Amino acid sequence: MNAEDLRSLAERASDVEGRRVDRLAEVHARIRTARRRRAAAASGGAAVLVLAAVVGVSVLSGSSERSQEPVEPPTPTPSETFELPAGEVTYTPDIAPDDIHGWDTLATRTNTQTELLGATDLSTSVTVSGVGNMHWEVTPYCLGDPDTWYRLTYADGGFEASRCGPGAQVPVAPRYPFIVPASSDMFIEGPQEEPVRMIVTRPTQAWVDCFTSGKGGCKADVSPLRPLESTDVEFGFVVFQHPVSPTVLEVFDQDFEALAMTATGEELLVARAVVSAADASTLVVPLDPSEQVRVVGVYQTGTPRLDECREQADTEGLLDDPRGVPRSAYSELDRQCMPQLALRVDGERVELDNTSHGLFGVTGSLVPPGARELTVDVVKNDPRNGRFALVLWQARPTE
Amino acid sequence: MADEADFDEFVVARSQSLLRTAYLLTQDEGRAEDLLQTALTKAWFAWRRIDASPEAYVRRILVTTSASWWRRRWTGETPTAELPERPSAGTSDGPADGQDLWVALGRLPQRQRAVVVLRYLEDRTEAETADLLGCSVGTVKSQCSRALARLRLDSALQPVVDEGMPS
Predict the structure, then answer these.
(1) Could you list the residue range(s) of the whole structural domain that residue A373 is in?
(2) CB-based burial of residue A33 (10 Å sphere; 0-12 exposed, 13-18 middle, 19+ buried)?
(3) For residue range A90-137, what is the model confidence (pLDDT) as tens digits?
(4) Cα separation, B160 vs A320, whole angstroms
(5) Cβ contact (<8 Å) for A216 and B153?
(6) Looking at the domain assignment, is residue A17 inside a domain?
(7) Are A278 and A57 in contact (CB under 8 A)?
(8) pTM (2 decimals)?
(9) Which of A6, A130, A226 faces B165 most closely, judged by CB atoms?
(10) Which of residues 109-138 of B touch A (CB under 8 A)?
């Protein structure tokens, strides 16, 4: 296998036609549906704070003349809980109980259910409606003899397989529970039917060795796996869905729902957003003492000066490409123009973690317990070229 | 960019090219069309903000959306988190069968699959690939390296020794 082999695969796509004739109409139908649902999701919950509309800095948006905004934003309400440097604005979302949505259970199938007692092959089909990102999960369990394996398959042919074992029980929460709280648009997909099937099987040792080694040498395909005729193991799966949730905050075209959840299932609520003053190079946010988990995220957008800087920095005519300016040109120019930010906690610089696991997709950091002072500094390029904001989450209060 | 007419024109003119990328990412014509329409719909909401190349913008949505779709459909071919070392001997580097390679490509984690599609199937530079994926060139290099290593180890590209399963 080499690069040429891979390139040859591209030919497979050359004849794909799709629904060419109907595509434009279907896309517009999706747009209409998404607009209706965005409006419904937003108006059904707490007041939406549209920060960008107030600070008026989003050169990327340039959208003030768009006639089809999904929601008419109410007037933002700056918090007055503490004093801030002039021009800094804090927004505190007013979160109602109904705004907080975690995971719902869509379906449960186990071979201990009366109608499925002793089954070795379980299946269901659920109707899911996702909001942009991953918003449904299937979590399996299999209790019993470790020589017995389970295989879980999805409609697109994706599968997973693992051994049964001791201590497994019906899942009460999704395996990958994290909820990304912000989306560049709260796009809603679906609803769509998603069939799920789970079997228990007993593979040969050769297959197990092959499957677990990852070294190849066997045909680790799913097709030979067949359900057992009978079994003593208890197994099954639960389908979870994170439903459509209202937007409670908006910062620089990022929509935020109330609840975020980490990969370990820790629930956090968006607590506040602080937007930098115009032309400011520093943003300071003092935090009250707390022993609760807190996460801070850093967001940024450009100002009209960013465009001016780009044009001046464009000595190679990258912006003059008649075929359209590629994003890479902006990336190159923004290295010279977009303010680069550093986050500090009590003066100590912390790395901005942009992995999607511990911090649910937020570019930011965990905040240590206690009273803290968060600072965002521009460490490179002209601060007037951008505005930046800090968004804080804190652990959801226990009831 | 300007208005809805521009958007419609873009869809008519460029969506077939984008569909091919979607197909390589999803390996299924129906899902490719779904992915493309999803990306186009998302792009419509940002249309006035796209001040550069709309095709690159939509292509980036395609890639990121396909990755998010994949996250809920883990194709856990290999339960080990880390890729085993490549065997030092006994692995053929000869021409791979197209169908097997297609199957193996489909078993890559979506991020690695996207890198392979963009780098090799669409012949994009590392910088372009990084830009489309929203990551560094270093990440593209490492993902690419891991993807190729994983492909070389994929059982679909190995001689079949035993696929026996009891009935």
Answers:
(1) 46-99+245-395
(2) middle
(3) 888 888 888 888 899 999 999 999 999 999 999 999 887 654 444 678
(4) 54
(5) yes
(6) no
(7) yes
(8) 0.55
(9) A226
(10) 116, 120-123, 127-128, 131-132
